[in-house]
Automatic annotation (TrEMBL):
Classification via InterPro entries: HAD-like_hydrolase_sf (IPR050155), HAD-like_sf (IPR036412), HAD-SF_hydro_IA (IPR006439), HAD_2 (IPR041492), HAD_sf (IPR023214), PGP-like_dom2 (IPR023198)
GO biological process: DNA repair
UniProt-listed NCBIfam families: HAD-SF-IA-v1 (TIGR01549), HAD-SF-IA-v3 (TIGR01509)
Superkingdom per UniProt: Bacteria
GO CC entries: cytosol
UniProt KW Metal-binding keyword: yes
MF term (GO), any: metal ion binding
Keyword Magnesium attributed: yes
Species this protein is from: Neptunomonas qingdaonensis
Name of the protein in question: Phosphoglycolate phosphatase
Length: 215
């Protein structure tokens, strides 16, 4: 069982929201509502910054703001971030059934490692694949296939769950069973049903039923 990190396994939006609002205050700009920023977390730092600062894609200040944001985020990684509701029970059940689980994320190692350690998940995860471990990140399937190698499992016997189209694309290209996490950070302009996942769940406590139904 493989999980995307932000918006799938962990609810990290509260810490990103705090960081973005600190930057906005430093630039004498109004704070960003949580609901608006939450939708952009899985799209990455630049997407959050463009939304909060109302900047175009090619704005010259984006690289500078990105650096500021990530430096601040590194100091505020796991203050309010936590497992999504139902996820702790799911992980415990997987472990009780001796089903290994791991993480495949586009989040860099320097953020992934400390947040997993802070939440005491680092020793529980059977594998954790970050961008530094591969030559191509999701939606390329390389990171998922590497996770399979580390788990000594075939892709056809693996499940990948994520809250972004690149997660489902990567999982499908790796020939895994894919689950769309509808509880994640999805913009209202997106239609996750178009992602062509094998199944969808509205909340984490539905995942085990999907596993039992198909495996």
């Amino acid at each position: 069982m493989l999980f995307d990190l932000d918006g799938t396994l962990l609810d990290t939006a509260p810490d990103f929201h705090w960081v973005i609002n600190q930057l906005l205050k430093a630039h004498n700009l109004p704070e960003q509502p949580y609901t608006e920023l939450r939708k952009q977390v899985s799209n990455g730092a630049n997407a959050m910054l463009k939304t909060a600062f109302k900047l175009p894609d090619d704005h010259t200040e984006l690289p500078y703001l990105n650096q500021q944001m990530l430096e601040l985020y590194a100091q505020h990684l796991a203050v309010d971030s936590l497992l999504f509701p139902g996820m702790q029970s799911l992980l415990s059940t997987l472990e009780d059934k001796q089903i290994p689980w791991g993480i495949v994320t586009n989040k860099p190692v320097r953020f992934t490692t400390p947040i997993l350690a802070a939440l005491q998940l680092d020793l529980r995860s059977a594998c954790t694949i970050c961008p530094e471990h591969v030559s191509k990140t999701k939606p390329d399937p390389e990171s998922l296939l590497l996770a399979c190698q580390q788990l000594k499992a075939t892709p056809q016997n693996c499940i990948y769950i994520g809250d972004h189209i690149r997660d489902i694309d990567a999982g499908n290209r790796a020939q895994m069973f894919t689950i769309g996490a509808l509880y994640g950070y999805i913009n209202e302009l997106e239609n996750p049903r178009d992602w062509q996942a094998n199944e969808y769940v509205e909340q984490a406590d539905q995942i085990l039923s999907v596993i039992d139904a198909h495996f």
